[in-house]
Model the fold of this input.
Amino acid sequence: MALEGLISKRTDAPYRSGRTESWIKSKCALSQEFVIIGYVPSSTSRQAVGALVLGYYEEKELVHAGRAGTGFTDETALALRSGLESIETTQPKFKRPVDKASLQNVRWVEPRFVADIQFRGWSTDKLLRQAAFKGIREDTAAKDVVLEEPKGPTMKPARKTASQVNLTHPDRIIFDLDPGEGVEWEEVIAGALEVKDRLKSQGLESFVKTTGGKGLHVVSPIMPSGEWERVKAFTKKMAEAMAADSSRKYLAVMTKSRRKGRIFIDYLRNGRGATAIAAYSTRARTGAAVSVPLTWTELKTGIRANQFTIDNLRQRLSHRKRDAWRGFFELKQKLPG
Done:
């Protein structure tokens, strides 16, 4: 999914916006050994390297992997330049063509040294992204450096992994019930139950969650086989049917001037590129309310849209014996038609 990292906060610190020492950004990073095949001189010091040019072997042929231009201390940059200058050579032969921009200002060296490199991923032209030098590996022979597969703990996934997510096809339907001024909470609940019944009539089971704002989300998992436009058309048709059947309760257009006393059945969350608050995500609002999955039985008890916050959510979860959305990821439902 190409996520950049995680944001975490000290549990005893207040929830405040802006940069503080209480918040920490932990970036996701990959690590791999690469052969040093060249360097680019520093633009600020004549005796230091500015970047290392890296590669790896594929079927005994050298593959250009890009550059690492950060991670050096002043001392390291000087030491690398001193060591690499003595083994400069002509440009090596690569297995695949290398673009001209990658060849500019490079001083090629014999492939003797191996570097430990941390990086954020690969670009579309198969070059390292945000690569940083971490050190020289003296225990690895350059000829043995090949591209490694990403490694991690071996576990049975309880939820979808990144490799299982199909971003080109939606795997769920979302109806966002957004109440206008003057709408009672009981009416929002009734609207969510009507969406549930209408989906049920189409052969689709659904789940409900608070939004942490004013409304509710009704979510139905589907197999990722339909196109985005098809899913959006299906949800639009249902929203328009609700608005036509109960025009005093619902509307299917987002015009704010028409929302007073009615609930906007927002189907637009189902367009490609559209966003919706994820389960257990906080809202950037006073109180830091959280979007929380519920059972349909709980919804009837009158739980409010912003009832759960970062302060009381732990208590809710500690008292639950089973997931409110148990079975969500196991459902194999197809979009009707």
Remarks:
- The two ends are 30 Å apart (CA to CA).
